[in-house]
Specification:
three-stranded parallel β-sheet, alpha+beta, Enolase-like, domain 1, globular, 24% strand, 2 domains, Uridine Diphospho-n-acetylenolpyruvylglucosamine Reductase, domain 3, 33% helix, binds flavin-adenine dinucleotide, five-stranded antiparallel β-sheet, 285 residues, 13 strands
């Protein structure tokens, strides 16, 4: 049993956020672990909880033009079941936790938790996704990459709820996602890699590379990506060393219980190489 408010409507939830110091609670899969006090003991929260997972206004999933709009109470399982969810995103979601956790956990919770190991974040950064933040008097939209300011820190104001996520559409013909953990299922990420590219006539038209768990924030560099855009794929091996040096400066992992900094760095640079050489060269007609 947990104490908290269960608002019937979004407007009620925003009133509560304005009037009391509440903790928004979606699936609770991060919050319950963070506030756990041991087996058989109820987790302890120092503020009132505001349960948002039953709010109909946040259960929406639609396409506005080519932009996917996902309500903040949509669970990872619901995203996996939806035909409009891009395949590469489904591949990422399938590797998160296990089904019972995915039935509860939300994309909004993964974003607001703001962990550099949050598995949806490399995709959201690569896709230039945005979050919608609402308070009683204001709605604002921020890129996910700006919303998250540091590990566990976001720009969310005390009276705001994240109400939705927008993911602009983009088509890629080269896609690669790798999550490295202790085992295949139910493992926290040691390092993750996402590469997306669109190629035509042997040239790179669009390329996006994002790495998780290897710096205080998700690593994505438009500057390095722009060095590759327009390039002939056959020329990549000639600039690979320079690109790896560029990424090496951005990859700043830590040693922790899951892995070592040295392993994380080495494996990330190898995944970049594998994507640029093996995945891309296969696309040359
Ligand atoms: C067994 C297990 C396995 C896991 N495996 C993975 C994994 O493989 N990869 C991974 O990335 N994560 C994993 N997680 C972590 C967690 O499941 C995810 O981060 C999940 O997406 C969190 O969503 P939630 O709805 O449960 O968030 P909650 O726990 O409800 O909330 C998380 C944070 O977001 C805030 N929040 C939630 N909704 C809103 C909102 N609408 N507006 C404002 N703030 C909000 C909360 O206040 C809190 O700070 C795992 C957790 C468990 C328990």
């Amino acid at each position: 049993m947990l104490d908290g408010y269960l608002p019937a409507k979004l407007s009620e939830a925003l009133d509560m956020m304005a009037e009391c110091d509440c903790i928004p609670f979606a699936g609770g899969t991060d919050l319950m672990v963070q506030h756990a006090r041991g087996s058989g003991v109820r987790p302890c929260f120092d503020k009132t909880l505001l349960f948002v997972s039953a709010l109909k206004e946040l259960k929406t999933f639609d396409l506005m033009g080519k932009t996917l709009r996902i309500g903040a109470a949509v669970t990872l399982s619901e995203l996996l079941e939806n035909a409009a969810t891009p395949q590469i995103f489904k591949e990422i979601l399938r590797q998160m936790a296990a089904a019972p956790t995915r039935h509860m956990a939300t994309l909004a919770g993964n974003i607001c938790n703001a962990s550099p190991a949050g598995d949806t974040l490399p995709y959201l950064y690569a896709m230039d996704a945005e979050v919608i933040l609402q308070s009683r008097n204001e709605t604002r939209v921020l890129p996910v990459a700006d919303f998250i300011t540091a590990p566990k820190r976001t720009q969310r104001k005390n009276d705001e709820l994240l109400t939705g996520i927008r993911i602009p559409a983009a088509e890629f013909n080269v896609e690669s996602y790798r999550k490295l953990g202790q085992r295949k299922g139910m493992s926290l990420t040691k390092a993750s890699f996402l590469g997306l590219a669109s190629t035509a006539n042997g040239r790179i038209e669009d390329i996006r590379i994002a790495l998780g768990s290897v710096a205080p924030h998700i690593v994505r560099s438009r500057k390095i990506e722009s060095k590759l855009t327009g390039k002939n794929i056959k020329d990549i091996p000639g600039i690979l060393q320079e690109l790896q040096k560029d990424y090496s400066a951005l990859i700043r992992p830590i040693d922790d219980a899951r892995s070592t900094a040295a392993y994380r760095k080495q494996v990330s640079l190898r995944l970049i190489r594998d994507f640029l050489i093996n995945c891309m060269l296969k696309k040359i007609p």
